[in-house]
Model the fold of this input.
Amino acid sequence: MSTPIDSGAVAAAVVGGAPYLQLIGGEWCPATGGASFPVDNPATGALLAEVPDGGVADARAAVAAAAAALPAWAATPAPQRAALLRRVAALLLERQERLATIMTLEQGKPLAESRGEIAYAASFFVWFAGEAERIYGQTIPASAANKRILVLRQPVGVVALITPWNFPAAMLARKLAPALAAGCTAICKPAEQTPLSALELGRLCVEAGAPPGVVNILTCQDPIPFSDTIFADQRVRKVSFTGSTEVGRLLIQRSAATVKRLSLELGGNAPFLVFDDADLGAAVAGAMASKFRNAGQTCVCANRIFVQRGIYERFAQDFAAQARGLAVGNGLEAEVNVGPLIDAAAMAKVQRHVGEATAGGAQVLVGGAASPLGGRFWTPTVLTNVDATMLVAREETFGPVAPLIPFDREEDALRMANATNYGLAAYFYTRDVGRVFRVAEGLEYGIIGANDGSPSTAQAPFGGLKQSGLGREGGSHGIDEYLEVKYISLGL
Ligand code: SIN
Done:
């Protein structure tokens, strides 16, 4: 048994010292009025840092700074914008260990996952550095001999980027990198649970040479004054948000007043289909990776695992054995695979979902309860005898809970998989090439993992159908979200 990590000492070493401040117009500043709020460590509940509790005045100052910086940044030649992005990526990788430790302290995920997330964040800066250099226009044959039609792609303008707590560096990188690549200036608002990773990324942007006002980072406990200010201001031309579908619906309403563009990465309810002809070992490994990464707190994680009857028992036994072997604990400890949930509300939701399922007849193969460690730790859980009416099958649990549901025919699996208003990610395992195409085409989801439990990557368009969102992040599509199309009709 290894010696338990002293999280307090680690925290003092990496986040102690200089206080965290907001980044507005190139200056590090406290909130107007001086208020602050605490950020805690979900593994221990201990205070990690105080950060400024920004309000309306801070949001207005950030919009003014971003608007003032816009003309020069939009006019900066693309290779120079790309070079800045590459420097940010290099700094992320150079400081990977420190940044990963801060992420684990504020978010809870195992250190190995935090290291992976820093590399994932850096990959968006690298990818969009390349995209910055490929913002091509068009010429279109005109209908009159004395005319020429030219199409330009120009930055949208000032953008507001609102990011979640589950991937505090990567989700910001996935928005900020294309925004900067396109020539936009940004006001970033990280989730109140995990602002430190965003402030650290802001520091790297400044160090890499981002001019004042190009990247602004605001922290606040109550997002309402921030969003009221952002949505009322005509200078903010776009909002990109990752979070719940409930909040996404509100933002759609709010955007009407000033007709802002929106990109929304919202909730999911991912189905994971395992067919009789699947490679069982690969399917179990894919389900483990998809389900238990970040303690099940990802929008793309397998929420419902449908297994064809012929392979059901073997899959359930192998998957349960691996889930039983997961080590739960403080993510700073090397052997830990599953960290804490983010807060008490997350624990209560998991408790409610598992409680309702077991009361309705679901059987617990593994786990089924909070961890004996106490606090915000939940034991990885595998449930069988689940039916489609249960909360675990209808709603995103956002925790380490895997409900298994048998099916008989391909068409039954597709019908059950699509029976949801969400459409972010779906997965399936089969060795039948015809089925690969039939099922991939039949699933009403924006991201399909076909024999792949970890499809997220900077090169591919990430986003959902139905109530899982609008727009795409990553890939060559990701930069389009930050570009306007303008055409010039030129008379000769
Ligand atoms: C998410 O949970 O929204 C993002 C996960 C990912 O990028 O893989």
User: Anything to note?
Assistant: The pocket of succinic acid is lined by residues 166-167, 242, 265, 298-300, 456 (CB under 6 Å).
